[in-house]
Amino acid sequence: MKYLIKAKLEVDGRVDRHDVIGAIFGQTEGLLGTGFSLEELQEKDKIGRIHVEIKYQGTKTVGQILVPSNLDRVHTSIIAAMLETVDKIGPYQARIVVEEIKDLRADKIKRIIARARELLEHMREREPDIKEIVREVIQQEQAKQAKIIEYGPEKLPAGPGVDQADTVIVVEGRGDVQNLLRYGYTNVIALEGARGKVPETIKKLAERKKIVLFVDGDRGGELILKNVLPQMKVDYVARAPEGKEVEELTGKEIARALNQMVPASTVAKELGLVEEKEEKTTQEAVEEKEKTAQAPAPQPVEAKEEKTAEEAKKEEKTETVAMAIPKEVLENIRKLPGTLEAVLYDKEWKEVDRVKVRELFERLQQAEKGTIHAVVFDGIITQRLLNLAEDKGVALLVGSRMGSKITYKPGSVKFLTFNDLL
Predict the structure, then answer these.
(1) How far is it, in rounded angstroms, from Cα 31 to Cα 172?
(2) pLDDT tens for residues 192-218?
């Protein structure tokens, strides 16, 4: 069918579907001659089956009439106008008003275009990047020359450039070292799977060189951070993309992770390593004061007040962000939970696009930097999404909840959950 006639129905009494259909056929029969007989047009497959939806409102009947048409635009319009001549259904007065004649072919064309774009994008993704292939060939050739060496008394796997470099990349195991050498990073050394004490060789390197601790993007990487950071001086922390290991990264992924490294002190605070130390110091001070004064330790009133002030500060920050969001956008956010959709806004809070959450990351990757101001979506705020938002100049992320593996919080991106706003 080419078109779909949509009409609104209202009857001043209670009638059934067959009463409506009977009135349409009966009152239009012969009105404009045999060429517009609905019965004959259905037999020739020019008009589809008429669909009627009704419901009762008190003593009245209201509903919708749908008439599929395979006629051209002019004849379809005449059929639609003819429907409006039906003024009585059963013993009751009736009114039929055509609301829309929908072009079904236009919808199909839109779907075809959208799908074609998706398929084209998939084809582009699978096309080999010649520059990347050349780069990998060169790097692999370099890797043949830069073989793993044994470094220090512990014979740790390392690259040959550790002594000459001002900065050393510390990774977990031999496979990580091998992969970084493949892409030309010779200033790398491994903890060799250390789960307890950090090797003395690496501690001594940290005393005279800048250290970048490069860990996997999973729970194991987080455990390495918690183990190593308290034991030695680390200047920066780099993490593989979420769910990936350093030994499986491509050259681009390694370069990106190292470009996005953050100060180790920031990561230590986020993991609670600094807070634990401060709490211990505070407790020791309280015990010392108690011993000197020979009196019971005071109740932790100040700590409670400090926590309350901190919570108030967070609430104030959330309220400030909420006040900057227009009321109509907040109303749209209230409707978003359960839809699995994402809405993208520009700086004027005009809707730029609306996509499924599963398509959000790819959509942001395609966006030009600075074109997306805010993203509101019915999904989880992850470290990977925060990193991409920072790259694309996104100022605000609002999601259904926070992910559990967020270690780096970009200062340029504010992020909240639905619970914070609603």
Answers:
(1) 85
(2) 855 568 999 999 999 999 999 999 998
